[in-house]
Amino acid sequence: MHLIKVKAVSHSYGNRSFLMRTKGRTPVLKNVHLTIEEGTCLGLLGQSGAGKSTLGRIILGLEKPSSGQVLFEGQDIIRADQRTHQHFRRHVQAVFQDSYSAVNPRWTVEQILSEPLENYEPMNRKKRQHILIHWLERVGLSEQDLSKYPYQFSGGQLQRINIARALVLQPKLIVLDESVSSLDMVTQAVILDLLVELKKELKLAYLFITHDLTAAYHLSDQLAILDQGELVAQFQSKDDFFISEHEAVLKMKEATLASHPLSRTIGRPVR
After folding, report:
1. Residue 103 has what DSSP assignment?
2. The domain containing residue 237 runs over which residues?
3. Is residue 185 assigned to a domain?
4. Tens-place pLDDT, residues 123-148
5. Which of 57, 118, 157, 216 has the fewest CB atoms within 10 Å distance of its CB?
6. Which residues contact residue 155 at a Cβ distance below 8 angstroms, ignoring those fewer than 6 apart?
7. What's one GO MF term for it (predicted)?
8. H-helix or E-strand spanning residue 79
């Protein structure tokens, strides 16, 4: 069974005039079909405005599509009952681009990481701290960081905290929405390597939303391209993607430059 199945999802937003009246609707997604399998990473590529983040929010259940279905383990999450929805919310987590706005600046790391557990799995503080320390250490931080505040961390460290928060409930899927794009290249590489390790170790599935082909190639098992709200191509392997002559693939490859001029190739980005 597919972990996630998106069936014929379309979505549009109403345009507002200066009098705040709705004036027509702008289509953002058009009849999108895609699947994410257990333990695999689907890299969702596309330029800004392609509809990637909107699709991510719909898959997370943060927005309802204008039409279509999103199935999690065969259950329609849009029309789910409370019990099914709670199960879905526990097992599908997210890490967003802006690591700072994703946390409460007035909370300590302990409070930030504790929130999901308090919502879904209440427990005594000793047991909770044991879990928090485990996941902090797993992402490269330490027990001493529990008492610190977000301003005391770099962007890369804070993104590790966001990853740890996504992991405390041991989800089946993490939606990564441009989660490394605001980091410098060295930090990007370290975080991507961490995500690869976690995926293998925990048998996680990812939806990796990005415009960065090199990052997508590093992390993803499968690749798909969203263009102006339409899923124009989906490939079962990275190799299938790079031998494709599809117009959207050629545009993505042409727009990708390797990190060093001597390493630039027409076909494949540098790993």
Report:
1. S
2. 4-263
3. yes
4. 898 999 999 999 999 999 999 999 99
5. 118
6. 99, 100, 182, 183, 187
7. ATP binding
8. none
For 159-176, b where at least 16 C-beta lie within 10 A, e where not — what string? bbbbbbbbbbbebbbbbb
Q: How far is residue 9's CA from residue 112's CA, in Å, rounded to a whole number?
A: 33
Residue 128 lies in a domain: yes
Distance CA(187)–CA(266), nearest Å, equals 26
CATH classification at residue 54: 3.40.50.300
Helix, strand, coil distribution of the chain in percent, nearest 5: 40, 25, 35
For range 215-239, the mean pLDDT: 92
Residue 268 lies in a domain: no
pLDDT in tens, 150-161: 999 999 999 999
Residue 266 pLDDT greater than 60, yes or no? no
Please give the structure tokens belonging to residue 86.
């709670």
pTM here?
0.89
Is 271 among the domain residues? no
Task: For residue 207, report the phi and psi dihedrals to the nearest 5 degrees.
Answer: -110, 110
How many structural domains is the chain composed of?
A: 1
